[in-house]
Amino acid sequence: MTAALTLESVSKRYGGFDAVRDLSFQVPKGSICGFLGPNGAGKTSTLRMILGLQEATAGRIDILGAPNGRSVRDRIGFLPEERGLYKKMTPVEAIAFFGALKGLPTHEGKKRAKLLLEQQGLGAAQKKKMKELSKGMAQKVQLIAAVVHKPEFVILDEPFSGLDPMNQQGLEEMIRGLAADGATVLFSTHVMQHAERLCDKVVLLARGKKAFEGSVDEAKATSPRFLDLNGAITPEAAATLPGVAGVETLSETDGVRRLKIALAPGAGGQETLKAAFLNGLDVRGFALKEPTLHDAFIGLTGDHPDQPATPSEASQ
Ligand SMILES: Nc1ncnc2c1ncn2[C@@H]1O[C@H](COP(=O)(O)OP(=O)(O)OP(=O)(O)O)[C@@H](O)[C@H]1O
Predict the structure, then answer these.
(1) Beta carbons within 8 Å of 262's beta carbon, 6+ residues apart
(2) pLDDT of 310 over the 60 cut
(3) What is the distance in A from the centroid of ligand 1 to the CA of 202?
(4) Where is the ABC transporter domain positioned along the sequence (predicted)?
C-alpha cells in the first residue's frame, strides 16, 4: 500500500485544551477515506493541520511527500466547511477563478467548468449568478471549483451538510467519480451512512483521539449482531439463551414483546434461535440484524456521532 497521507502522533492544543491527541493514521493512494466523528471531535482541526492552514502542536504529517499541504497546494483540492463563492460571479467564472489560484489557465478553467457543470446537471445554471443558485447547486459548484485543477488529493470538510437527500446522492456520485479518475479522497462527516456507502477506509475520531482505523466491514465486525425477536417472551427468559450478551425491550402489548437481543461476539444467532424453539418459547417472529457503522461507532467510542461532545468531556 502506498500512502498518500500519513499522520504520526499528531496533536493540536488550543490554550489548555487538547483538540487532537496523538493521532496517527494513513490514507492509501487512490482510496476514499472517511474521517468520522461528532461535531467537536477534532476533524476540522486535523484537516487544517494536514493542509498547513494551522500548525500541529506535535507530531509528523506527510501529504504527497510534503510535511503539509502548503508546498503541494496545486496538487490538492479542498472544500472547506465554511462555504461561499463570490456571489456576483457566474458558476463558470467562480470555478475558473479557483482553478487559476491553483495554476490552471483561465481559458482552460472555463472550458472544464462548462463541461463539469453539464455533467452535474447544472448546464442551465451557467448563466446565473452564484447568489441565484439553490444551496444544493451552490455546493456542487463549490466542489467543482475545488477539483477543477484535477488534484491528486481531495479533502472535503463535511461536504454533505445542509444538502437534501437528492443532492447528497449526487455528491456521493461525484466523490466516487473523483476516485475512479485516480484521486485520493479524504472527507469528514458525522453522518455514518455516507461513509458506509462510499469508503474504502474509515478513521473514527472521538474527543480528539482515534477510536478505530480500518475498513467499514472491519469496523462493523467490532459490533455485535442483533436478533429482533417478537413474541410472548420475557427479557429474563431471553437473557438465558446461548450467545446472548444483552436484551432490551423495545415494546410490549398484552405480554407480547419486541426484544432487541445483542448477540455475544462471534455468535451468529442460529444457536440462540434454536434454543428458543427447543425451550418452547413463544417466538412469533424474528430477524437477524447486522450492525451498522453507526452501531459500531457507538460501541467503539461510547459517543453518539450525531451529538457533539462537550469541551469539558473532550478535554478529559
Ligand atoms: N481556534 C480554536 N481555538 C480554540 N478552540 C478551538 C479552535 N478551533 C477548534 N477549537 C475546539 O477544538 C475542538 C475540535 O474542533 P474541530 O472544529 O476541529 O472539530 P470538528 O470535529 O471538526 O467539529 P465541527 O464539525 O463542529 O467543526 C472543539 O471543541 C472546538 O471548540
Answers:
(1) 224, 226, 244, 245, 246, 247, 248
(2) no
(3) 20
(4) 5-232
pLDDT for res 131:
87
Range 79-86, long-range pairs (CB < 8 A, 24+ positions): 79/142, 79/143, 79/146, 79/154, 79/155, 79/156, 79/157, 79/159, 80/157, 81/44, 81/157, 81/158, 81/161, 83/138, 83/139, 83/142, 85/130, 85/138, 85/141, 85/142, 85/145, 86/130
3-state secondary structure of 306: coil
Cell numbers for 96? 475558473
Say if ligand 1 is within 6 A of residue 314 CB.
yes
Give the pLDDT of residue 315. 39
ipTM here: 0.94
Q: Is 44 in the pocket of ligand 1 (CB under 6 A)?
A: yes
The reported pLDDT for the residue numbered 309 is: 59
Give the C-alpha separation, 21 to 210, whole Å: 8
**pTM assigned to the model:** 0.86
Residue 312: per-residue pLDDT:
41
CA gap 119, 232 in Å, rounded: 56
Q: Is the pLDDT reported for residue 39 higher than 90?
A: no
d(CA 179, CA 157): 17
In short, whether 11's Cβ falls inside 6 Å of ligand 1 is no
Which domains are delineated in the chain?
A: 3-215 (3.40.50.300), 224-290 (3.30.70)
What's the pLDDT tens digit per position in 111-134?
Answer: 999 999 998 888 888 888 988 888
Measured CA to CA, the distance from residue 22 to residue 18 in angstroms comes to: 10
